[in-house]
Amino acid sequence: MTLDLTDTELVDLSIGIEPDAPSEPFPGSVEYHSHEDGAELLAENLHGLGIEDVDAADFPDGIGLAWEEVHAITHTGTHLDAPWHYGPESGGEPAKTIDEVPLEWCRGNAVVLDFTWKEPGSEITPDELDAQLEALDHELAPGEIVLLETGADDLWGTPEYLTEFPGMSGAATKHLVEQGVKVIGTDAYGFDKPFGEMGRRYVETGDEGELWPAHFAGRDVEYCQIEKLANLDALPRRTDVPLVTFPVVVEGASAGWVRPVAMFDETLGGEGDA
């Protein structure tokens, strides 16, 4: 079916980069340059090119172009983690950086699994994934994207966003990737259980497997993960969700910002393929 964007409903599944967001442990900052600043900066740019006879006041209405200067890690806001994030190798091969991730991985049909019932700090297991798929009467296909709905995005803008969510286990991560899934997403802050819970369990047990087990599963099996999704509850269906989630290319980086968008054919009431 040909995609006609004029008849397509778009569902934005992203959280943006917000200055000093309380839900970010490493919040980004944004320096805003006004139109007046822009006139000064553009005039200075021309001066640097040897064109001295242009001043800020010479621009129409004395104003130039507005722009912003962003200081943020690539894991700020909604982003796609590349295999390089998890370690230098994945499955015995050099791990891909974000600029090496195939675009084909980042578009396709998604299935949304409901884990809003899971306790914060707990881990999602392979059996629980299978149970959710069975409830949807859905069998995974290679290349399908799996999205985990925890409801944690309701806490965005609060410090609780960093602590009140369940995470994936290493075994659950491998379980999906071994079925041909290349991209897994969550609407929570992190893919693993919360930082504090991982640290507490490690201190209690001495088991290093408690530390970022879902991430480190990517050292054995190759996949990408989307963190900080939003609005999964706004999707009109749970399976066969047409999704694009292309990352911004940052050379040699462990992640890239994404704006995942689900697309539905409005002429079919959201029931048909986009």
From TrEMBL:
Cross-referenced SUPFAM superfamilies: Putative cyclase
GO molecular-function terms, A-Z: arylformamidase activity
A GO biological-process term: L-tryptophan catabolic process to kynurenine
Protein name (database record): Cyclase family protein
Organism of origin: Salinirubellus salinus
